[in-house]
What we know:
Helix 3 packs parallel to helix 10. By secondary structure, this protein is an all-alpha fold. The protein is built from 10 helices and no strands. The chain has helices spanning 3-23, 25-28, 34-64, 72-98, 105-129, 138-168, 173-182, 186-200, 205-228, 237-256. The two termini are 29 Å apart. The longest helix has 31 residues, at 34-64.
Amino acid sequence: MNYPVLYSLLATLGTWMITALGAAVVLFFKEPKRKHLNLMLGFSAGVMIAASFFSLLEPAITQAEQLAGLKPCWIVFSGFLIGSLFMVICDRAVGLFKKEEKSNTAFMLIMSITLHNIPEGLAIGVAFGALGSGEISNEALMGAVTIALGIGIQNFPEGAAVSLPLRREGKTRLKSFLWGQASALVEPVSGLIGSALVIYVKSLLPYALSFAAGAMILVAVHELIPACQKNKGSSYFSTLGIISGFSIMMLLDVMLG
C-alpha cells in the first residue's frame, strides 16, 4: 500500500477511535461538563481554521501554480467554494429527512454527524495524499498530522453528542455507544478516497486541497464555533480554545517552515 494512503487510513482510524471514546462517555458518565466540551470544540475550530490556510490553501496555491490553464487564484477559489457548497448540500440533505413522517430525533442526529464526518475524512485523506506528490517534508507531514489531530479532538464531543441523547431517549448504554461510534465509520472510507484521488490524479490536488479547506471552514464557522458558544455564560473557555488552537497551529507552521 502507498505510504500516504496508509498514513491516511491510520489517521482516520485514529479519529474514529476518538469518536468512540467520546461515545463511551455514555457508559461511565451522565453528562460531561459543558465548559470542557466548549474548550474542546473551540480548540478544534481554531486548529481547523488555521490548518485550512497553512496546511491546505497555501499548498493548494503552490500546486495550482504548476498547472497550465486556469490562474491559480481561480483554481483555489473554485475548489474552496465547491467544498463549502458541498457541506451546505449535506446540511440540506439532513433537512430533507426532517420532513419525512417516519424520521425521528435519533435518526436525524446520527445522519447529521455522519454527513459532517465525510468532508472531515476527505480533508485528512487529501492532506496525507498530498505527501505523495513529491518528497515528504516535515512541514507537510506535521500539517497533515495537525489536521487529523484537530478533527480528532472535535470528534470526541461529537461521539458524546450522539450517544448521550440516544441514552436519554431510552436506548441502552451499549446501543447508545455503538450508534455513537458508528457515526464516524465513514471517515476512514472518505479518507482513503481523498488520498487515492490526489495521488493517482495529481492534477486534482490543488482542487482537492482547497475543497477540503472550504469544507473545514464551513464546519468550523457554522457548527463548531456556534456550538462552543452555547451556554458559556461569562466563561472564556470556548474563546480561549479557539485562540489557543489557532495559535498552536500557526506556531507549528512557522517553526517547521
